[in-house]
Design goal:
Radius of gyration: 16 Å
Order of helices and strands: HEEHEEHHHHHH
Structural class: alpha+beta
Distance between the termini: 26 Å
Largest sheet: 4 strands, mixed
Bound molecules: zinc ion
Helix content: 40-55%
Shape: globular
Number of domains: 1
Oligomer: single chain
Strand content: 5-15%
Number of helices: 8
């Protein structure tokens, strides 16, 4: 990413975060994962602030209640762009996030740090944690949804000049067998 692009992107992100209302939040549902209470929330401010993504890029992440700020054990945050994707894509992304809870990924700070490093530096690798969470969505029958969700995310990233992200391309590639047979690449 060029310096000019980086400056433009960070300005766009910063402007959005400064103008966004942190309280603007829609709680979609609450459910149980292995005895843990989990809520699903749409909040553009939190997703942009934590993941450093502009709101046009569909994103989701799961936050544990480590700091006692939540009224549930975990919260899955999605932004409006993610929530606007077709249902099968949303479902696959939620399968992926739930798998992070089931696999105990959020309790392993070292692995989390490595995963973030892979992303930040755009290394040509998929973290084992991400691969396992993708596999969980496939096992639940949502491989096609995940394939298209990741493509939606990648396309939105490319539009914003974030084409350096190699991890997402590798994840898409490994899901290629789940594309609709009628779909021409
Ligand atoms: Zn993940």
């Amino acid at each position: 990413m060029s310096i000019l692009n980086t400056v433009r992107y960070m300005t766009e992100l910063f402007t959005f975060i400064m103008d966004a209302d942190p309280e603007e939040e829609e709680e979609i549902s609450q459910f149980d994962v292995l005895g843990n209470s989990v809520k699903l929330v749409v909040n553009d401010f939190i997703v942009s602030s934590v993941l450093k993504v502009v709101p046009s890029i569909p994103m989701a992440f799961v936050m544990p209640n480590t700091l006692g700020m939540l009224d549930t054990d975990y919260c899955i945050y999605v932004n409006k762009a993610l929530w606007a994707l077709p249902n099968d894509q949303i479902e696959a992304v939620l399968d992926h996030e739930v798998a992070h809870i089931e696999n105990g990924d959020l309790e392993d700070q070292v692995r989390l740090a490595v995963t973030n490093m892979v992303r930040t530096f755009g290394l040509n690798k998929v973290s084992s944690m991400e691969a396992a969470a993708d596999q969980a969505a496939v096992d639940k029958g949502n491989g096609e949804g995940l394939y298209y969700a990741l493509r939606s995310i990648r396309d939105a990233m490319n539009k914003e000049g974030l084409a350096f992200n190699k991890e997402i391309n590798l994840r898409i590639k490994s899901l290629k067998q789940y594309r609709y047979r009628t779909y021409e690449e």
